[in-house]
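Encode chain A's predicted structure.
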Amino acid sequence: MPVVPLREILADAFAERYGVPAINVFNDLTLEAVLAAAVERSSPLIVQTSVKTVKAIGLDVLWAMWTSMTDGIAVPVTLHLDHCPEREVITACLDRGWNSVLFDASHLAVADNTRQTVEVVAEARKHGADVEGEIESITGVEDGIGSDTVATRQDLQVALDFLDTTGVDVFAPSIGNAHGTYRAAPELDIQRVSDIVAAHPVPIALHGGSGLSDAQFRDLIARGCAKVNISTALKERYMKANLAFLQETAAKDKWDPPSLFRAVRADCIAMAGELMDLFGSAGRAG
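Encoded structure for chain A:
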């Protein structure tokens, strides 16, 4: 199955109320591992790249990794640029072939955010690509973007006007969620998701997914959170898998890099697969 548009992956998820993992990768191993998990679980998958990752690896190298690893893949996958406030990076990724982008203009006044998002949507449509939008910052810093200051939530009508005017394909509201590791169990305004979806049926992107409980995930997905972002959890799993293997290696004094890569890859595959089972996307690729 070829790489497909984001809207195609989310249409079924939104209609049937399951969630598709949107996982931020940061190197070749994590990219290959989450794709392998999708094939293993027969699950659709959204692969996300941060601006930091795009700049660190390089646009052309990252694109080559993506196209080579998805060539002939048997499940629907799509490539998404996460939280990007830089219009030039959005243009570069769309020109190169990214399937969707999150234009993060949440730091701007709503009117300016809306105006620029309309422009990004028009640009994306020329490439057959989709756009995720947001009007409030998600609390926390992720890959150098964001702020720990808690954002003020806009009234429901402000959100609806933004959706009507911009025509974004996915919307990421602030509901008390946060990027990074939660210091305490988050108190989520889950009703806000239901209110938005009832008034303007649009797939909702759940940011700050790492650290939510299984019950919170299931409730939010049932309300319309069809895109579930995971970043911190994979970073932590990747680093801890490396640490555990290297501690064992040091004790044995036996150093074999390919063994390290295999062990970390297996751990990343397991984690992505667990998310697919939890969100209900496993078995939905058929």
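The longest helix spans residues 257-279.
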